[in-house]
């Protein structure tokens, strides 16, 4: 997985987090019980998800090897709660010399833990990983207007003549 061949502990960004009150690590099955889905509800609707639903989807994602990389931040003190999460999805293509395109998805930080740069740690780590380990030729993301400034700090920008279109069902 990501985090076996990518030493999070070596990352300067993560050092404070390891020494302090948080742990950054890949999502695990037991995170269901630590409030992972409730954290995602702060981003969008999740419906009713039982442990069986969660485990089934977790296994499906894992079986798609080298594709889904979810990082979580866990509070070491407050009930071992999951307080941050973000996912990198790597899409393999024929174009760009059989290249790989990355997408940053489902970035969420608990309302109660704002202002501690937890979102920055997640986005930085996944962005570096996408570039250095997955060899992505580009990474993209979609976000609300008020978050454009936040993502621009990591080098994400609007591209000329590229629009985000969406059809909902
Ligand atoms: C945001 C998220 C996207 C997520 C979507 C959920 C980031 C960078 N973007 O656009 O990943 O899937 O919200 O909203 O985290 P939806 O439920 O309306 O699709």
UniProtKB/TrEMBL annotation:
Could you state one GO biological process linked to this protein? UDP-N-acetylglucosamine biosynthetic process
Where does the UniProt annotation place the signal sequence?
Answer: none
The record's EC number reads 2.3.1.4
Q: Does the keyword Acyltransferase apply?
A: yes
**What pathway is this protein said to act in by its record?**
Nucleotide-sugar biosynthesis; UDP-N-acetyl-alpha-D-glucosamine biosynthesis; N-acetyl-alpha-D-glucosamine 1-phosphate from alpha-D-glucosamine 6-phosphate (route I): step 1/2
Keyword annotations for this protein?
Answer: Acyltransferase, Transferase
Could you tell me the superkingdom of the organism this chain comes from? Eukaryota
Ranges where the N-acetyltransferase domain occurs: 22-169
Sample GO molecular function, one term: glucosamine 6-phosphate N-acetyltransferase activity
Reaction equation(s) it catalyzes: D-glucosamine 6-phosphate + acetyl-CoA = N-acetyl-D-glucosamine 6-phosphate + CoA + H(+)
Family of the protein in this entry? Belongs to the acetyltransferase family. GNA1 subfamily.
- Protein name per UniProt: Glucosamine 6-phosphate N-acetyltransferase
Organism expressing this protein natively: Rotaria magnacalcarata
């Amino acid at each position: 997985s990501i985090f076996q061949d990518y030493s999070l502990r070596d990352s300067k960004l993560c050092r404070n987090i390891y020494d302090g009150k948080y742990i950054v690590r890949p999502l695990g099955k037991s995170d269901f019980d630590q409030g992972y889905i409730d954290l995602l509800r702060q981003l969008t609707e999740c419906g009713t998800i039982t442990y069986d639903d969660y485990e089934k989807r977790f296994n499906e994602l894992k079986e798609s090897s080298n594709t889904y990389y979810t990082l979580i931040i866990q509070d070491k003190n407050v009930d071992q709660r999951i307080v941050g999460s973000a996912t990198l999805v790597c899409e393999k293509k024929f174009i760009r010399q059989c290249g790989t395109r990355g997408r940053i998805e489902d970035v969420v930080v608990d309302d109660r833990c704002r202002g501690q740069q937890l979102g920055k740690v997640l986005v930085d780590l996944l962005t570096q990983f996408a570039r250095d380990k997955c060899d992505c030729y580009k990474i993209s993301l979609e976000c609300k207007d008020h978050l454009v400034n936040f993502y621009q700090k990591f080098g994400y920008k609007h591209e000329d003549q590229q629009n985000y279109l969406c059809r909902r069902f």
